[in-house]
Amino acid sequence: MATTSPERFAALTDAAIALIAELGMRGLTHRAVDARAGLPAGTASAYLRTRKALVEAVVQRIADLDTADLATRRVPTGVVEAAPDLDALAESIAALLDDWLTAGRTRTLARYACLLEATHHPELRPILAYGVAMRAQAQALLTAAGAPDAEQRGSHLVAAVDGLLFDRLAGAGSLAAPPPGTPQNRADLAAAVRGLLRAAVS
Amino acid sequence: MATTSPERFAALTDAAIALIAELGMRGLTHRAVDARAGLPAGTASAYLRTRKALVEAVVQRIADLDTADLATRRVPTGVVEAAPDLDALAESIAALLDDWLTAGRTRTLARYACLLEATHHPELRPILAYGVAMRAQAQALLTAAGAPDAEQRGSHLVAAVDGLLFDRLAGAGSLAAPPPGTPQNRADLAAAVRGLLRAAVS
DNA sequence: TATGGCGTTCTACAGACGTAGAAGGGTGGC
DNA sequence: GCCACCCTTCTACGTCTGTAGAACGCCATA
């Protein structure tokens, strides 16, 4: 219960996220977190005694960063009106995806690892927060656009966009896809998202 | 090098896949595989001495099962003609997804875990070829349908469909989504896939 | 200056893990 | 009937991991 220094706590969880991204869940150990964070051995164990606590802290941290991230990226103004500017929206979503593939790649990798872990550990459900937020935004958009079945379509839309993200992340389509961070990739992603948006509102 | 009994080998890799699905990559150990397969302790270690070999065998097995699975599910006849029956195709894709969420859930979970693992272990990448096969089919379809940018759109399509699968698997959309295996789920998936197909060919 | 509390750092330990090699046992050739 | 071979099974061992608790040092108070 020695949760006294917030920056120390943040350093630990960030180190844990980096480890998960680099080595997978298997690489997440108390000692590795200490080393990665540059803190004396035993620190992670003192702050988060059990491994469960460690994983839960990671999930909470990712969820917090995600919601903060999504909050700063508001949907472009004028988009949720009756005649939404789908192209502009597609661009901004593509930019988000590209960010999550480059600067935010670490967190994205860790998030998917936790998502998989949450399959058999319901207490990790907070990791789903980003999806919930995105779904809400999508459903609001589709409702405003007057699309039928906004709830269902919004959910499908988010899932499909998530698929694009995972695809680029895992390199499944690496044969033809441009590397993340390049203008081509953003353009390619924007084209894909544009198609998805158009289909959702039609 | 004692790879003598094929059914023993298959039992080991299947047990390994089940373990990954249940406990994640962290649960994949030689001893756990032995126990799960009901074979004497030390068997997995004898067949697949290093952990790397164990993981690679798992990946290979998943890839084999995937390609065998996809080979039996041929695209419905008359679909790749000039006027493809998108609704029928959507139905059959939805059926595949639903199968992979129920009967094939174990393998689906293990596949995503391996996909994530392949991110930092390139030697695992070439073996996970299920996406390649699906992409080829999608691109052939779109080409036949006369869609522009068939290659790019086919890739996006597969990624989006994969997103639907992962979404249902991880329960991200569990708030509103019907449980896998039910007719509602198949119908819901079919609706989503239909939208994606229509957008891809337009 | 002494003292008490509290956050930090270190040490301990049991169990699990990866890996290697020895022991065991059954089968085919001679 | 005997032997050699090879697959299987068992044992060994050094390392890593999770978890606990003791030792330490710092700061505030008296």
TrEMBL record, chains A, B:
GO molecular function annotation: DNA binding
Alphabetical keyword list: DNA-binding
HTH tetR-type domain span: 6-66
Pfam families in the cross-refs: TetR_C_31
Top-rank lineage group of the source organism: Bacteria
InterPro entries documented for this protein: Homeodomain-like_sf, HTH_TetR, TetR_C_31
DNA-binding region: 29-48
Protein name from the UniProt record: HTH tetR-type domain-containing protein
